[in-house]
Fold these 4 entries.
Entry 1:
Amino acid sequence: MEEILSKAKNWLSDTFDTHTRQQTQHLIENDAKELKDSFYKNLAFGTGGMRGIMGVGTNRINKYTLGKNTQGISSYLKKQFPNEQLQVAIAYDCRHNSKELAQIVANVFSANGIKVFLFSDLRPTPELSFAVKHLNCQCGIVLTASHNPPEYNGYKVYWKDGGQLVPPQDEEIIQEIENLEYQHINFEAKKELIQFIDKDVDEAFITASIKNGSFNASAEAKSALKIVFTSLHGTSITLIPEVLKRAGYTNVKVVEEQAEPNGDFPTVKSPNPEEPEALKLALELADKEQADIVIGTDPDSDRLGIAVRNQEGKMILLNGNQAMVLMTDFLLKEQKKKGFNDGNFIASTIVSTPMMLQLAQYYGVECKLGLTGFKWIAKMIKDFPNQNFIGGGEESFGFMVGDFVRDKDAVTSTLLICEIAAEAKSNKSSVYEQLLQLYKTHGVYQERLISLVKKGIEGAQEIENMLKKLRSETPTHFGEVAVKRVEDYQISEAQELLTNEKTILEIPKSNVLIYHLEDGTQIAARPSGTEPKIKFYVSANAKLEDLQDYDKVKSDLDQKIDAALSYFNF
């Protein structure tokens, strides 16, 4: 605690403004627990950039932690691009303080002689990824905490290819930041270097989204599709309704109670389309309007939740894996019409559904797998410039169509799933029936995600201990099913338990464990890189001989997953 108190007292110096000093003093005198959590470590970059609770301290999002990041990135940019006019693009979402923090970040970049393109109002994260390349920037920043609770904010860093930071840039930038002291931050803006952007970039992004997300559905089919859309109080309201309209989808109902951007997210417990409760109002409107499809996006519009009608006409939520295989299969069919070449590939992550590998094998293309986070898919595109990326995603409700955006993109993905739904409806089918047909062809893949929230310094220790125990006491069975293979990405090693044969994992090191069971079930465990959680991902599969048997097969797989998870005693 002495070390923490010493760190906190540094924030009482003249380097920090009066309000920050007062807040720090208040914590020192009145709230030892909050003081400890605010200062026990430096806020770190995770799978989706840097996210944290807003407040004073080294483990919080504030003008000084973000200012230090920006000062470090400014220095790094000058070293990496010594003979270039440096340019960065900055966007922000609807969260509290996002606009003010974006301006502070712009000020620091400009103070370091770097040209800044700053969006004049909130915009979706995928538009920032697009803008980096469109405006020939070396770097981009978006102020967002994605779907985290209202007290959070965050800082995502993009490189010149439009993708988020990956090795070696991330470690090099972190080192640059850690070498700085807070008094080294230059907050004195050069206003002539800050240019506000809006409609021109919007138009370019809308045009590119429609080009990449629209295919063969007729105007009649599009207008016949009944869509309910909710932005969950986030940024997508600025673009998605307009994109749908221009693409020919005229029958769109917006959930008005959630249409106004609001960092409190007043109508939901969590603004996360992964959570069924978040789409409750949209589902109610869909039943009232007899809509065919519901789409909801998270606050920065990179994830989307989808609901469609099943064979009984009831609205059901698709999980992220189901949405991913539907959209990937559609893109592969479209590519097949044009013809495949040796360089075509789709992409996903090691904790997402193995059904993506089945799709790739069926169409004769490659499926590249990476760690969690779309930055790894963007890296694949950058590392293999002569190959054609068709599309791909991950289980956490993110998808990317082509490579014009190098991050998950709910704007273009919304168009794509509407295209699938419109075409299916015009052929007297449905999205749900398309999914069942995929299951009949490739087998039913049933997935489940368990997320355990462990907050604060004690929670971080608890997560670490859980993973340590899994490594020191390697499970040989989950339920009654034997483990045949264990992959430990922290040591880049896979082990066959029957033979003890070990092989090297080529994917970068990460704190992930994956167990492959003899019956084809897969169980993964990893700490979240953006939230105080440990996550367990389970996938089980079985053949589907007849569409009428789907409910029975699904029920059997749920029981198999229950049996496997009984090992953990949640």
Entry 2:
Amino acid sequence: MVALPDWMALAPALSLALASLVLLLADSIDPDSTNTGLLAGISVLGSLLSFGFAGWFITAGTGMADNTGVALFNSQLVVDQMALFFMAIVGSVTTLVVLASYDYITEHSYQAEFFALVLLSATGMSLLSAANSLATAFVALELVSLPSYALVAFLKENKGSVEAGLKYFLIGAVSSAVLAYGISLVYAATGVLRFDGVATAISSGTIQTISEGSIQAQSGDPAVPMAILGVGILMIIGGVAFKTASVPFHFWAPEAYEGAPAPISAFLSSASKAAGFVLAFRAFAVAFPIGDLLAAGGAINWVMAFQILAIATMFIGNFAAATQETVKRMLAYSSVGHAGYVLIGLAAVSGSGEGLSLSLSAGMSHLLVYGFMNTGAFLFIALAEYWGVGRRFEDYNGLGKEAPVACAAMTVFLFSLAGLPIGGGFFSKFYLFSATLNVGAWSLAAALIINSALSLFYYSRVVKAMWIEEPTGSRTIESYPMGLYTAVVGAAIVTVLLVPGFNRVSEIAFQAAQLL
């Protein structure tokens, strides 16, 4: 074992932040530089270091000795196994995205700014994974969101990209206001913002204060106003639902994903979604214990709220995806449906202990697998855009004969997203299904099965077009971009390797949920 100072626990986030600062420094020295290889290399190195540190700390058992994690800044940030699990997801997805962007933005200006914004947003995602306070989480969430708005509108000559960025910004501003108001109500009701302090206030029924790192009841022990707390929790659910593109706060996602550069669509639909869910998992598993809330009365039953959200998100996302005529928009609505699957992690909760650990770890495992297969699918769209392939399903006709390796990778992604045993997606969905059976949530189990079957229909349309249909016109592929190809094939290999490796992933996720 190597003894490191406590601040080194933030090495995954610091690697991303340092790489972004190096990019900005390089841009300030030579503002007109178009050395895409150097800029992409710095970005890949920073994201790989982030992923490597997260993997190293998970393997070394960081935060497992005393089950509390590495607490920093008066426990405002806590790096434990769950934080490291999500930091690994962010680092891996960011690596694939910046690698693919090497070819995608070669002809565009402001390349250093592009990579720096990606890494700054990823830094916010890593910090959000370790947030142990509603205030810290809000600041980290804004660090995720602000660069994302600019990235969606990066193609300034493309009206669709600018329009998508504006819509994303406006809806994001409203959701941030709702989330901030919800946080203020929780603070008004409990007197604290740290997750453990909020939980202590709910369980004891008295407003809390934090003094020298310890949590104490206020003088006079005033009762917690549960009605105000319930409204605050409801608003926080709304803010989380926006960030995870859950129904009915999903309207921004198809517009943003379709208008943004394809690598950014992959980034937002995978890493950004994971960041939203880690906030939800931490806040509701730690700060708002459902057993104490129901015992106190007057507050919202957030498990039932997430059950309704999960079912609605699954059905609306998948049915909307089945009616789309463009591949990128289909994947956008598909990502909404997958948000519904992950919501099972909070909807299939039966209290605390092993039941809570099982449901949370199922959601975490699906997010990790989803990070590779969904990122790979969007990066394939970026590859198709690079080749000048159209946007509609029929434009992909016969592409498998001209680019068999890339199309084979896309087939792996799509069938794994549908839940077929060709990739890790089958096992992650089965794990979610087991979590629903564990608590007898038959409606969630039925919704999961029905929507997985429906998704196979629209995913198969792309596979059929690539391998079975004849091309509708002439098409010549003259080059095979190294960065995009490497990212797509690499994501496909990991998706397949997650079949034998899923047990290890689920064990780490379950252990992280138990420690939480």
Entry 3:
Amino acid sequence: MDATEATAKSWLTDFFDKDTKSEIQDLLKNNPEELKERFYKNLEFGTGGMRGVMGVGTNRINKYTLGKSTQGLSNYLKKTHPNDDQKVVIAYDCRHNSDTLAQIVAEVFSANGITVYLFSELRTTPELSFAVRYLGCHAGIVLTASHNPPEYNGYKVYWSDGGQIVPPQDGEIIAEINAISFEDINFNAQNNLIHHIDKEVDEAFFEASVQNGNFNAKGKDNFKIVFTSLHGTSITAIPEVLKRAGYKHVSIIEEQAKPDGSFPTVASPNPEEPAALALAIKKAEELGADMVVGTDPDSDRLGIAVRNLDGDMELLNGNQTMVLMTKFLLDQHKQKGFQGNEFIATTIVSTPMMEQMAKAYGVEFKTALTGFKWIGKMIKDFPDSNFIGGGEESFGYMVGDFVRDKDAVTSTLLACEIAADAKAKGSSFYEELIDCYVQFGFYKEKLISLTKKGISGAEEIKQMLKDFKDNPVKSVQGSNLLYIEDYNTSVVKNVQTGEERTIDLPKSNVLIYETEDGTRIAARPSGTEPKVKFYISTNAELEKAEDFKSVNSRLEAKLDGIQSELNL
């Protein structure tokens, strides 16, 4: 008997329920390959939580893997807050089994004597982040797999500051989880400790979102928005927030308004994918709308389409929306007068344009590893600093610090404010973006994401990244290599002089090449999906807006050339 089979058979004891044991018996008899996929490893509780395919097995999302994580977290809360009445808040999204799994998680917490506030229906991730501090909780959990395919679910953990767990809590929680067995899970709920919540927290969150995202833009009365929740949670928040901010012409894509974990109208509920917003863009053309907004299932990412110079709807990428949102917020703060402690933030694989903008405005620029938890950590680590806004290339943005994670609800309102204000001035969202390129440099990015599933896929990703590191490029499109940034070793090396300096960030499996002309190529494995990602950024001067189309075409061709050169 091999180790995988032995692990599977350990789930045949009386502790596990009848359906689980029956399914394992069937796999043992009829499908050894599937059994191996499900039991060859433990689904890792990473530095923010868990995400994986639902089903029976140690490498799957189910009541036992989530129960074990919850038991470990309960033990940690008891150890770190022995004199407190521990409290947690739980939210869940539209995915299959999210409501059931959320209830099980609530029961395990309650079985350990921890008070639980459980949203009575699905809610957005940003509202969960907000609720942690609003309710004075020690931790928060959201059951979501973001924009992963329908067969996935997940479990994200938030700490008392409303941000995702970061060092040292993450490692300490993981150690607690790894120290227990499945049989240590306490499923004996104390139902009197589970309290359902909804309207009070909703009202507070809506009010805070409007307060942070509404800038009394002119032109709202004739600004037309088409909105799609892509079958997710944002339907519970965004229409109401837009209404309260004064937007009267919001058309909702009804075919996608009902929460549905099968995501029946899209191949992927990911607003980064143009196909996901196809129905909304079609409706926008019919109505002559100014903007399309779509969000992912848990409403922390947003995709925006606006009219380009030819009047056609064009989906912007996360870097583009981040740049214009940040500039708008900087302008608002500048009008009031900078206090000298402001900062903006982004991640190491996002556009370098954010740093150029910070320099131009004289505010501090901070950069973090990929993942919004690191931006949230900045706010906690620098309490005397004022976070204006920031985001990452993967369509996430955070306005101020009232939510400590990416927030598609408030960001949607902010985007509409920018566009309505621009329209009232005879401009547009797109033209304002071009003006940014003129002021700060025209930076253009491209993401190449390769999916590699299963055991063999994981090995393939590992080999691709090894090859990328072991065989560094000498030049890119005729520009010589200047720097190699290796976040695994925390070293930046100038390959021309041999000079090295230390990267003051936690170690991470990321490698970045930078050439003499400022072209950057980053490679990293996804932390949440079976993918390897390559991020390419290049730039050029844009002397005047009238030159945008020609320079854009030149940069587009350069990005395609780099992709070809790297055999991606």
Entry 4:
Amino acid sequence: MLMQAHAQGLNVSQVTVEGNQNIDAASILKLAGIGRGETTAAQLNDAYQALQNSGLFETVEVLPQGSRLVIRVKEYPLVNVISFEGNKRLKDEALAEIIQSKARRVYSPAKAEADAALIAEGYREQGRLAASVEPKIIRRSDNMVDLVFEIAEGKPTEIERLAFVGNRAFSDRRLRQVLETKQAGLLRTFIRRDTLQPDRLELDKQLLKDFYLSRGYVDVQILDASAEVARERDGVFVTFTLQEGQQFTFGKISAASEIEGLDATEFEAALKLRPGSVYSPSGVETNITRLENLALKKGLTFVSIEPRITRNEKTRELDVVFTLVRGQKIFVERIDIEGNTTTLDQVVRRQFRTVEGDPFNPREIRQSAERIRALGYFADARVNAEPGTSPDQVVVNVDVEEQPTGSLSFGASYGVSSGLGFSIGLTETNFLGRGQTVGFNISTGTDNTNSSITFIEPAFLGRDLKLKFNTFYNETDNQDATYDTRLAGIVPAIEFPVSELGRLELRYFLRYSDLKDLRQAVADDPATPDVDETVLPTSPIIGRDEAREGLFYSGIGATYSYDSRISGVNPNGGVLLRFGVDYAGLGGDVDSITATALALAETKVWNEEVTLRAVFEGGALHMLNDDPSRVTDRYFGGGKIRGFEPGGIGPRDLATDDALGGNFFAVARFEADFPLGLPEEYGISGGLFADFGSVWSLDDVAGQSGAVDDGFHLRSSVGVSIFWTTPIGPLRFNFSKALDKQDYDKEQSFDLTISTKF
């Protein structure tokens, strides 16, 4: 309250402060900015406003009394304690860090209201748009109050619908698979990505744009991502508005040189783009890198590759000329790394193909940044170049933020054949900050126990040379077989690239294999219905295998793999080829050669709604001495041909009904995965499959009491799959029907598998 002074002013001879308890009078006078002497009404009003706006006083009065001026205040109380009520999702400690009000400080209603808004914003980031926060005070003695924030968290405001406007080439269902944000569905209790987060929407817009660009839609625009909140604030409707444009393919692909004396013929021969294929920015980037590497191999420095693209609107083709131009002569002065408290500098530095003193290549620096992020050691990694000490030098700054790289996992698995199993694993992917992987795993099932220790050095001798070491110990106590097994071994290996998409692994192996606890089989005998069980003899072949006791295998092996999917050029599929051979005969008890091969091809069709996949796999075991192969080394085809039990096909002793395994197997599997029309967020899709193959051939069938069938007999099956992605792991239901089979084969018309880590 301000009592009006006379218009001509007031001659103040004394200023008195009343009502203050915690704030001294001198501080109040300083805030008021007024003292003795001639004082105008405007000055009194300014003094009043200054005290009122200080946030320290509940009421302020400026009272002229003759020549004396009285400033009467009522201070805001001090905050005794701050408490939160009604909060469950956000703990008190987290909320205390959000607010600005503090205990033992002056209470401010404006600050309390601002704190309530900050708390509500924290809940909105958790997807709880209906959350409300009300600050209240409880008055205590000595002019103190308790500040209480009463919180009504409300339910998560789920995204009820993700819709798209302007999409013609791809369905809403396909585009939803691209987004990080998901619709609420059956599993909304577990899926936390179905709440609205503005930052995630920005990421989704970029993901959508990248999706279209990688499929040749070079003019795509993501115009808007709007979120409309339901009136009850219990649901959000998100709509992405986009403009696809036309899809373009590669037209003429060529190389040209603007550098005097440099012929582009060899560079053009190195290009790997096919005219007529769908345009992809990653394909252009990959070929630029290929040409830059070729230039370095030829000793050419400061050569840049500029892709010059010409549009042909009529044919919707993009002609690309990879032009070699002379770049600026800029060198890398140094590479500075900060933020790596655990990870050694050398782990980060080896992600650069550039070292101090090399020509500066902005593209290589960007790719190095991607490699650093892909390590998984850092929550964030920023790489940028700044001017160096001279105009022709730059300094590359790497700023990283460490994150935990160790994991302790507990797991469970289930299969109709394998039963219930549990596992525990301890893995560190950045051991001692050296970028090495150390892992220990142990798993148990109904009939088996497996354990292993793994060590991987990804940059042995500072090169792209992966050193691997694995040791394992496995035991089986198989109730469905007449014997148990014990297997142990060590496998050191090195792996290195032999081409852009190909890698080669060379290994040595030392294994011990033991066949033990041979016993007779027990089965129902339909010929004697009064007898519940009958004892069957064990196959003499297995008996001879068991008589050889424990065997040592010592040898070398190699595996070549080619995976076109890692290039990213074709986002709709690719090819995986893998060939392996192992020779056992460097000492030990067994001389043999084992060869395996796998070829996989997959692609998406029908606007990427359906995935088609074909897998061809085979293996051969050849003994180099007079000893026959052993049952523990032969193939059983378990799981490779659906519709049959593990060990349900292949060579069999017809007298004892023992599965013997075969020296050869070949399988062809064809699959189609497709949506079932259910909401994508349910995670349920379907599939069809058809499997063909066989397991055959034995070395020794002598001494049998009955016939042994080890011939090549084609088996085939067809079936339907239901896939369900759940919080406890991916479920797969297979319903199979065996078409081609032998009378003694063991069928399995249904199979359920689940595997998860938590």
